[in-house]
Predict the 3D structure of the following.
Amino acid sequence: MPDIEERAVTPLYGEPFDSGFARAEAHQRAADLWAACAVYEELLVLAEPLEDSPDVRFLRAHLLSDLASVRLAATDVAAAEDAVERSRALLDDIATAPMGPRGRQLWLETLLKTLIARADLLRRAGRLDEALAALDEAALTLPEFADPEGLRTAELGLNRVHLLMERAEWGAAEEHASALLSTMPGAVVEAVPRLLTALGLICASTGRFEPAEDFFARAEDGLRALGDTGEVRALVAHRAYAAMRRGELGLAEELFAQASVFFERHHRFGDLAVCEQARAFLAGRRGDPARAGTLADASLARFERLGAAIAAADTRLLGAQHAYDRGDLAETRRLAEQARAVYQEREVYERCAQVDLVLARVLEDGLNRAGHGEHERQLLDTALALALPAALALEAARYGFATAHARSQWLELADEAMRLAFRIAVRRGDQGLLFELVEHRCAGASLALDRTASVRAEGASSVFPGAGAKAYGSGPVTLGGVAAGAAASAGLRVAPPPRVRMAPESGRVALQEYIGAAESRYRRRIVNEEEVPFWSTDDLPGRPVVQIRLADAGDLFMTWTWAGGARGFGTGQGPAAEVDRAVAALADALPGPGEGEEGMRRAFESGAFADPRREERLAHLLAEALWPPGLTDQIRQVSARAGRPLVRIQPSPRVAQVPWELLAVAEGVRLVDLADVVTTAPASLRRQAVRRADEPDAEGVVLVLDPRVPGFRADSPLGSVLGPPGSDPELLELVRRHADTAVPSVAAPEQALRRTDLDREWLGEALRGGARRLLYVGHVSGAPVEGGQSEDGALHLCCGADTRGLAEPVRTHRPLSARDLLLGTLPLRADGECGGRLWPAPRRVALIGCESGGDLRFAESFGLAAAMLHNGAELVTATRWVLPTSFAFHRLAGLPPAVRPLTEAVLAVDAAHEDGDPVGCLNRWQRGQLDRWRADGRIEHAPLLWAALTSLVV
């Protein structure tokens, strides 16, 4: 083999040992692990007759340590354990022997390698706490070792990552691996591909397949550069796993078959057992139970021979799934319970939750097939006691991830568990439980500013937890330097939602029994310690109010509660197929984000909101799918007795763009005809948006009207939305009305439009100076829903690209994102301040731009509107979808230039924010627009513009 001859031999022990070490390493790079083992065994034999001395014992310890690593890579666990124990005994024996500085460093390095190998061995055997103890011992040893290239530091960190992965602590594992990768010295080239592979597996396991393949590709490049052909071949199995997780089962089968041939040829039987386990799953999916059983039995036998307890339990859980698929519920239960016993003993709590879900499905399936008469209630209670805590735990696992994108992808994987819990609750017929389920799901994640990484000096903190700290149970790793910057650019950190207090008299918290069971059973925090009332009625207006909340769990679930002189509550359920059909019809009527002029042209030419008859049909379709008729009856009754009610709606992400005001709740009657409508934000924002009681009332009205975006002409995508300054007399009159209180102060009204000095620093100074209102009319870039990061939504002010901020520049301009408004400069400076201090929001804020209120389309609502509420606003008027400008009406709908629908909307919002009842005022204008639309169907009265507006409150 050329590598053996070409690589330089490091002089250390003399011949034949130095060249023997080099030969063994070359065999490892060529994936010939058994040849490497043979070389080490040969060298051990040669060392045996040497005269006993500390140097000879150290030589043997070194050989045994390296042999243990190779045996472990070959999954010869028993032989690896023997080599580790013998190496450690020899090292301990000479620990106090005289040795020079270089000898001490060699002894420390070998001890570290032995401890790390022992930790790896224990991890593979499923003895995770013992593995962590070995890593902790290595961490205590590490400071004394010079580690000039950082290789042992990297190996120790990588093994912590693997341990976190084994416990399914995906968020902590990813954060740890990312921090390690970003702070790793350039000389540690050997560890980089292994870290990249780990990150690829983490992403594949949590539903992020594009970044997974990117990590695998980068790992392959690194391995090829190192000449490590064996690990290049092993990557095939990892790519097969990713293909299987994303549903490409044929490709997965092909790749696993290739990897199996390689692993069997090179006697890597542990890796072969993993492939057999996966191929058993694939055989079951393609309807070949005999082949599935054969492969699963082979995998189980190998894992048991190797002492890999957790992997063997995984195979049993897979066998339980196969038994369930063929209808053998008793075998399903037997295998699942065997697997759970192992997971419980080894504290692998996520898999415990997965087993409990399997057992709950078995009970549900039994009830669906036969029912159990008088025992049905008892079986439903048992199923619910298994399913709901497990679903809560799996859902809460997302809080360990550092980015909203990773959390949103994890939620997609965990959603089926919550659907099961809802199904059982529905079958149980417990309206109170359904109410609490919806309340808990609508509470929303809490922003964790105290977990935001900030810039600190390089080396100020370790890239892995200190010795004795269980990373999987002690919270996030503190990141330093480059890692902090990377974490800041990735997204927000969040914590579990608050406890939702259902009744002040009883002190009951929503789902309290199930939350307690989940936190005890799976050792995972489900809610934080703070409590919020499920609905604060202290500041209700003097009229009846109904609070509606909606939650997605396959079907759409609704709850409502009356207050303010009316009493009562209810629940509703919309079948998934009907809801999806209605939401799809709504999407067809709207201009999509990113579609530009073509999307707006389609909305004008064929969209339902541009034609009265099509719009009415859509309004009926939405009402039939989303609105319970009984609630309409209650609204009529309350209105007749106590006056026009206020409807507060917190939509689920699936229905967040629905214009509730337009729903045809009866023939010829829209919801806005019967009630005023306002959108509510999650309860988690309620406790954060607290204004000081002694804060003086301010008078300033901050006007940000069509600011000029650097580098973009007036007719470009980020150009003017209101037209040339001075060309719109109604806008000029608006500025005149605020002349005494407007910020900025201008000599002539046209100077308030298309300004070039309205950047983030100016805005912060204006808001900190005291303001009662903010009116923004300009460009807004909404975040893509599929990305999961609502905080990427951004305002386009006059900031240049060199402005410091958390959003990526767009040519010569840096947008002001919701992430900026929330985090401020915390991620950018060691003495940074949170966004609420830099940009405190006035009580009333209007953000008139494309999809500025799109926050609620995300599982985590931290977009622009939510950021303003978080920073102190009490009411934010924003938009549900992309808005047409007046120019779009002129160009695409043929309106004359003197008719300016967008200006009319701006004036209506401005008037509403000056009114004592801003929601009622805006709704009156919308009812007037609806009346004109129904009367004459003129395009300037189309709901395409005015129905996009909604006000959000907490």
Observations:
- The CA atoms of residues 826 and 832 lie 4 Å apart.
- DSSP finds 38 helices and 20 strands in the chain.
- The mean pLDDT is 89.
- The two ends are 70 Å apart (CA to CA).
